[in-house]
Amino acid sequence: MKAVVFQPENRFGTFNSLVKVYERKLHYHIRRYVRDPEDARDVTQDTLLKIWQGLPQFRGDSQLFSWMYRIATHEALNFLRRQKHHLLVPADGEMMETRGAFADVDTTWNGEDVSLWLGQAIDTLPEKQRMVFRLRYFSELPYEEIANRTGTSVGALKANYHLAVQKVEKFILSRRNDF
């Protein structure tokens, strides 16, 4: 994938290049938050509009894609806040792999149930923990990359992720008592 460099004197050309190179990646990122494909397309368009409007103010303090990724994340979260509905399972429909903290879960549980519970558990997290959990657990991004994209310190991210894992684990393991 070819990197796009912001050229203030050629904002329109830069924007067209950004759309060609990053639109699909931004849309995929937004789909991890916004389940409905039409809503995700709308949020992607809103994100691209915000990027277009913000290009003149882009200072280059971070990489261009990190800045765009932050805008996409904020747009998706704002959309969810406005709609008051949350993603229960990944939009791509793939089964979520249970790993790490969930390794001792009763293997007789139905995978679809565990995926549903994982989504429900994530939805109970505070917004910041939910975002960090998704980026670390599903996207498997290193803390440094998440810090760069969110503008948060690595230490704060680690604390948020640790608390989120504990809450998600507790939620899923509490389902053991339901059977």
Summarize the structure.
The protein has helices at 11-31, 37-54, 64-83, 111-124, 127-138, 143-150, 154-174. The chain has 179 residues and is mostly helical. It has two domains: 8-83, Rna Polymerase Sigma Factor, Chain: A; 100-178, Winged helix-like DNA-binding domain superfamily/Winged helix DNA-binding domain (Arc Repressor Mutant, subunit A, Orthogonal Bundle), CATH 1.10.10.10.
How many beta-strand segments? 0
Strand percentage: under 5%
**What count of helical segments does DSSP give?**
7
What would CATH call the architecture of the largest domain? Orthogonal Bundle
- Measured as a percent range, the helix fraction is 55-70%
Largest sheet: none
* CATH top level class name of the largest domain: Mainly Alpha
- How many domains is the backbone divided into? 2
Going by CATH, the homologous superfamily of the largest domain would be Winged helix-like DNA-binding domain superfamily/Winged helix DNA-binding domain
Mean pLDDT: 75
Structural class: mainly alpha
Radius of gyration: 18 Å
H/E order of the elements? HHHHHHH
The CATH topology of the largest domain comes to: Arc Repressor Mutant, subunit A
Domain RNA polymerase sigma-70 region: 18-84
InterPro entries: RNA_pol_sigma-70-like, RNA_pol_sigma-70_dom, RNA_pol_sigma70_r2, RNA_pol_sigma70_r4_t2, RNA_pol_sigma_r2, RNA_pol_sigma_r3/r4-like, WH-like_DNA-bd_sf
Protein name: RNA polymerase sigma-70 factor, ECF subfamily
Keywords: Sigma factor, Transcription, Transcription regulation
